[in-house]
Amino acid sequence: AQKVTQAQTEISVVEKEDVTLDCVYETRDTTYYLFWYKQPPSGELVFLIRRNSFDEQNEISGRYSWNFQKSTSSFNFTITASQVVDSAVYFCALSEVWTGANNLFFGTGTRLTVIP
Amino acid sequence: DGGITQSPKYLFRKEGQNVTLSCEQNLNHDAMYWYRQDPGQGLRLIYYSQIVNDFQKGDIAEGYSVSREKKESFPLTVTSAQKNPTAFYLCASSIGLAGVNEQFFGPGTRLTVL
Question: How far, in Å, CA of A74 to CA of B5, rounded?
Answer without folding.
Answer: 34
